[in-house]
Amino acid sequence: MSTLEIRNLHVTVETPEGTKEILKGVDLTINSGETHAIMGPNGSGKSTLAYSIAGHPKYEITEGSVTLDGEDVLEMSVDERAKAGLFLAMQYPVEVPGVSVSNFLRTAKTAIDGEAPKLRTWVKEVKGAMENLRMDPSFGERGVNEGFSGGEKKRHEILQMELLQPKISILDETDSGLDVDALRIVSEGVNRAKENTGLGVMLITHYTRILRYIKPDFVHVFVNGRVAEQGGPELAERLEAEGYDRYLANA
Amino acid sequence: MTVTDHTQATADTAHSHGVIPDKSRADRVVSFDVDAFPVPTGREENWRFSPVRDLRPLFADEAADGHLEWTTSELPAGVTLAEVPADEARERTVREPGDRASAIAVKHAGGAMALTIAANTVVEEPITIDLNGVGGDVRGHLLVELGQSAEATVVINRTGTARYSELVSIDLKDNAGLNLVLLQQWDEDAIHAGEVLARLGRDARLRGTVVTLGGKVVRLNTSAAFAGEGASVDLFGLYFADSGQHQEHQLFVDHAVPKCTSRVTYKGALAGKTAHSVWIGDVLIRAAAEGTDTYELNRNLVLTDGARADSVPNLEIETGEIEGAGHASATGRFDEEQMFYLRSRGISEEQARKLVVRGFFADLIHEIGVPAVEESLMRQIDLEIAHVEEELEHE
Predict the structure, then answer these.
(1) In chain A, is it the N or the C terminus that has fewer CB atoms within a 10 Å radius of its CB?
(2) Which residues of chain A does B381 touch, with a Cβ-Cβ cutoff of 8 Å?
(3) Average pLDDT, integer, range A59-64
């Protein structure tokens, strides 16, 4: 049982126009097994929340705390956060030319576990996970994200999540740009991880469609760097019908 | 793909200041006569990026008493390594030297060493020649000659230290195939200026790989000239410059006859405040060279602040009847987003940097085609990266 606790989180970024506050006091608690949908209009700070938790150097935390099972996440380096059990599935994963997917996966697994995985079981595990995500075995020989289609990149992110077995996973708009078949495959992967490892999920999305495939326990509406409203799955249904206009008018 | 037409290229160079421009690469002086080349000042087109002060010992027209220690793998049947007297060595050299250092190397080498592979001899195992410098001034003249339809892999590995200048002449008769690997793994105070001149007969194939990791100054000019139709050259280069190192690679591919193919692929990494690399890639497609297919590429990965990579591709085209001609040159900073991506998967900063740099060089290293050399290079690159980590810690 793990808990990611975000308290009064304030985050700024440097822009050409000066320092800009993006997150203005975010409170959120995610436990193992729970799925929290973070929904909101573009520019509301959803991705900033994701990258701040993962430790991207672009974002500066000016106030507040983030802890995982009581440990101060903000004191950890980027790789220490991953080793502690956090995972970020990125919206735009970058290419790492010349580094094969299989080498990358093995290196990451070794780093997370602190020891190299047993070769035979590992190869089988990777093969099985790739099959589940309908990825061709030749995928392993390609360079990380090199020439991947949008759908391939997202499946590759979920593949990593299933193999690295984090405690809490942040999915940053994993659904955007996917057709419904790819969306279903990716969602199955998330549901598998929830079932197998009791993964806690922060599901950041602009659209409600993915919530048909991944059932949220909680829905948080993000507006202007804060949680404007929260509730259960019924809130998502309301957003589907009404959109974000109601919040924007108040903001 | 960028295509530079000849008139445009000429017009551009005419506007550059402080350097003496060439009209065409074909017009550059070549001569065995040292006096044909004044002592470089650094203002000449082909010396303008070079640290001429460090190279000065190699411009002195006087005898040099040093030597390199030679260790050669056992030579199979059909392969000989022999000393050749100076007059004959000049005659067997495929072209006259193209700069002062090279002309002086020939003049004062006291003859040449000739590695000769008889016609129709196919050598399976790589022939390795280790050249170890024990200090001092050394002049070298080396001939590599493959008879018709001969095939071989030759690995020449330079270690130790010296103030070394050389001319390496590569003569490939019709249909010969050579895989030549030149490794510069000098100690950190070595000074090395070399000229590699290749001439390819009809249907001949040259794969040339240059790897420069060591030395204070390494300046290696490779020229390949096609003398018969249907020949091809693949020139690969890999370099890694640290603080205090100047690594310069100039290339010239001379398409003088029809239907030849050339590919030039050089990649370098730079780390440290005073690391400097230079790549100049000249390709000349003469009027007669119809059906030419050429592409040259240089990529540089700058790992730390202060390092400087100069990259100058030049393409001169005198006929429109070609298959293809292009070049690409890019110098990029180490990508922080790649680092973040890898580290967000638990991979340490040091390991992530290693992955990125290894990945950058991976395709190139696999082109060498000599497994022992490939493995050793990966280890060398890991050591270079470890060195970068130390430099970063001291910042």
Answers:
(1) N
(2) none
(3) 97
In this predicted structure, the answer to whether residue A240 has a pLDDT above a threshold of 90 is no
Residues 339 through 358 of chain B touching chain A, CB cutoff 8 Å: 340-349, 351-352, 355-356, 358
Burial A205-240 (b: 16+ CB within 10 A, else e): bbebebbebbebebbbbbbbbbbbebeeeebbeebe
Is residue B358 included in any domain, yes or no? no
How far B110 CA sits from the closest chain A CA (Å)?
45
- Please answer yes or no on whether A55 and B344 come within 8 Å at the CB atom: yes
| Confidence (pLDDT) at B1 | 31
Whether residues A79 and B337 touch (CB distance < 8 A) is answered with no
**Cβ <8 Å between A99 and B349:** no
**Cα dihedral across residues B377, B380, B384, B390: positive or negative:** positive
Q: What's the sign of the alpha-carbon dihedral A225, A229, A233, A237?
A: negative
Q: Which chain A residue's Cα is nearest to B340? A: A56
Query: Per-residue pLDDT for B17 more than 80?
Result: no
Chain B contact for A177, CB < 8 A? no
pLDDT of residue A243: 86
Given an 8 Å threshold on Cβ–Cβ distance, is A96 in contact with B361?
no
| B335–A contact, CB cutoff 8 A | yes
Q: Mutate one of A47, A56, A90, A96 to test the B interface: name it (highest B CB count within 10 A).
A: A96
H-type alpha helices, B93-137: 100-108
Q: Look at residue A249 in the predicted model and tell me its pLDDT.
A: 67
Helices (H) and strands (E) in chain A, counts: 8, 12
**Is it the case that residue B21 has pLDDT exceeding 80?**
no
Chosen for mutation from A76, A79, A102 (greatest number of chain B CBs closer than 10 Å) is A79
Q: How many structural domains does chain B have?
A: 1
A70 at interface of B, judged by CB pairs closer than 8 A:
no
In a domain, B353, yes or no: no
Domains annotated for chain A, with CATH where assigned, are 33-45+85-250 (3.40.50.300)
With beta carbons less than 8 A apart as the criterion, state whether B196 and B168 touch: yes
B249, two tokens: 């690679």
Q: How many CB atoms lie within 10 A of CB B291?
A: 16
| pLDDT tens digits for range A158-194 | 999 999 999 999 999 999 889 999 999 999 999 999 9
The pTM for the full model equals: 0.85
Q: Which two tokens stand for residue B105?
A: 């190397």
Residue of B nearest to A84 (CA): B346
Arithmetic mean of pLDDT over chain B: 92
Composition of chain A by helix, strand, coil, percent to 5: 40, 30, 25
d(CA A88, CA A135): 20
B346 within domain boundaries? no
Alpha-carbon gap: B332 to the closest alpha carbon of chain A (Å): 13
Tell me if B125 sits within 8 A of B76, measured CB to CB.
yes
The DSSP element (H or E) to which B270 belongs, if any, is: strand B261-270
Position B198, amino acid: A
Could you give the ipTM of this predicted complex?
A: 0.96
B120 DSSP assignment: T
The residue of chain B nearest to residue A100, with distances taken between CA atoms, is B359
- Tell me phi and psi for residue B276, to 5 degrees: -140, 130
Closest alpha carbon to B299 in B239, B253, B250, B351? B239
Determine the structural domain holding residue B272 and report its residue range: 6-334
Closest of B195, B181, B175 to residue B153, by C-alpha: B181
